[in-house]
Design a protein that fits this description.
121 residues, alpha+beta, four-stranded antiparallel β-sheet, two-stranded antiparallel sheet
Length: 121
């Protein structure tokens, strides 16, 4: 029993020791091309805002879609009570999909979703 306990304790310490190895995120290495523009200001500001408040924005993501012949960007915030409220065009303007018809059209007709942020790996 003591051997089992010691093995479990050592294994747990090994796992915990690797938990602190995640590098600090630094936006200086952003290298995104958004509609032909490298790191547009609106995109960088959005990422900085999300990374500054991990409690509210934890699990958030920015996804690029093709919709009606152009790119649009959906900023998903899991804890938000408003789904699809933060959809941006190439210039960083919020696209309003307040009523059901435009929202359903977007959901049904968007394509080629690409996760832009956060980058995993």
């Amino acid at each position: 029993m003591l051997k089992f306990f010691l093995c479990t304790l050592v294994s747990g310490l090994i796992v915990l020791s690797f938990g602190g190895c995640e590098e600090d995120k630094d936006n200086s290495d952003l290298d995104y091309m958004i509609c032909g523009i490298e790191n547009p200001e609106w995109f960088t500001a959005l990422v900085e805002k999300a990374e500054s408040d991990p409690y509210y924005y934890g699990g958030s993501s920015l996804i690029q879609y093709e919709y009606e012949g152009t790119y649009i960007f959906y900023f998903s915030i899991p804890v938000s009570s408003c789904m699809y409220c933060q959809i941006y065009d190439c210039d960083g303007n919020i696209i309003e999909l307040a009523s059901c018809d435009p929202l359903l059209d977007f959901i049904e007709n968007q394509s080629n979703g690409t996760l832009l942020w956060p980058r995993y790996g």
